[in-house]
Amino acid sequence: MRLTQTKAELRAAAAVRPRAVVMTMGALHDGHAALLAEARERVGPDGSVLLTIFVNPLQFGPTEDFDRYPRTLASDLAIAKAEGVDLVFNPSRDELYPNEPSITVHPGPLADELEGQVRPGHFGGVLTVVAKMLHLTSPDLALFGEKDYQQLTLIREMVCDLDWDVDIVPVPTVREPDGLALSSRNRYLDETERDEALVLYRALTAGAKAGMNGPDAVLAAAHAELEAVPSVEIDYLALRAPDLGPVIGPGEARMLIAARVGTTRLIDNISITLR
Question: Catalyses which reaction (predicted)?
Answer without folding.
Answer: (R)-pantoate + beta-alanine + ATP = (R)-pantothenate + AMP + diphosphate + H(+)
